[in-house]
Every structure is written in C-alpha cells, then in structure tokens.
Design brief:
Radius of gyration: 21 Å
Number of strands: 0
Helix content: over 70%
Largest sheet: none
C-alpha cells in the first residue's frame, strides 16, 4: 500500500513554532506569521503562537486582531503578565480605558516589571480623568522603578504624579527619589 503525503508530512506544532520564533527574531514577519498560523492549525491552543501573533498584530497596528490573540493567550495562561501588558496597550490605543485599566491591574499583579505596569495604569487612569487613582499608580510606579534601578522611569512616574495635582504623594515620592539621585540631587534640579 502506498500513501501519499500531500501536506504536513512530519510537521509538528513544536518544530513549526520553533521555526516561527526564529523567523520572528530574524524580523521575517511574513514567514513567522505563516508558521505561527500553521502551528495553530496543528495545535489551536499553542500559547506561544497566540502570544507572538498578538505581538506582530500590535506592531502592524492591527489592534483588534492583537486583542483577540492576547485574550486567547490569557485564556490559555491566565497569569501571562506580558499578554496583559500588551492587551492594556491595545485597549489604551483604542480608547477603551476601563478595559486598559483592568488589563494593567492584572499586569501589576503578575508582572516582574511592575513599575512599567503601574506607570501604564497611571496613564490609563489619567486619561480617564481619575487623577487620584492615577496619582496612586504613578507613586507605585516610582517606588517599583527604584527597586528595579530604573531611574528614567522613576523620574517619569514622579513627573506624571505631579501632573495629577496630588502634592502630598509627589512630595513623598520626591523624598524617596532625592537621595537616590544624589549627589547632584537631579530631582530638585528638574523641578526648577
């Protein structure tokens, strides 16, 4: 008996996904998109393929498609911090502020980079007009930025916190940041 293999002989989702990631890293979007989609044909719940497709759609400005892929990623792995972060970015881009806030809140809970997640949460609250919530988020972003030794993000969080009008939190964060920026006391210089 002779069997003809028309398509997919020897293909498996794992090896296709590996090839797709290599193509993605080589910035070959067309090939990586094709391979990720083929991976999903063989394994519809492949976490990596959904995540990378979401990322590619985000880069291409295909917001709705990116949202769908990141939501599928989260459905498969509910603690996928990076998917929540990207999902929040896409919701924010669409002006879906309540959804962005929820995504960034989840990202802060699962994130290794909580400073960025809190900062984006603050931006979402600020755009929504919830300045008190934005102030709290920017304050948290500043504190987490210090812990992760990210001076630029710490200062950006402090600057955005000042925009909220919450002088008490701004002074508290400035007090925490000032020694960190010594001896030049860059925070005080930037305030002038």
């Amino acid at each position: 008996m002779i069997f003809l293999c028309i398509t997919g002989c020897g293909e498996n989702a794992g090896s296709l996904n590996e090839e797709a990631i290599k193509a993605f890293m080589a910035d070959d979007q067309e090939e990586s998109m094709r391979l990720f989609n083929r991976t999903l044909t063989l394994d519809p719940d492949n976490l990596s393929a959904h995540y990378y497709l979401g990322w590619m759609y985000k880069m291409q400005g295909k917001t709705d498609e990116g949202i769908a892929e990141f939501r599928k990623t989260i459905e498969i792995q509910p603690t996928h911090r990076s998917a929540y972060n990207h999902l929040g970015d896409l919701y924010l881009a669409k002006g879906m502020l309540d959804e962005a806030i929820e995504a960034f809140k989840k990202s802060t809970a699962f994130s290794l980079d909580a400073a960025t997640a809190y900062y984006k949460l603050g931006v979402s609250y600020y755009q929504k007009g919830s300045h008190a919530d934005a102030a709290d988020a920017f304050f948290e972003a500043g504190l987490h930025a210090i812990v992760s030794n990210n001076k630029d993000l710490a200062f950006n969080a402090y600057s955005r916190l000042k925009e909220t009008g919450n002088q008490q939190l701004a002074l508290e964060l400035q007090g925490v940041l000032s020694p960190w920026f010594d001896p030049a006391n860059e925070v005080a210089k930037r305030n002038q």
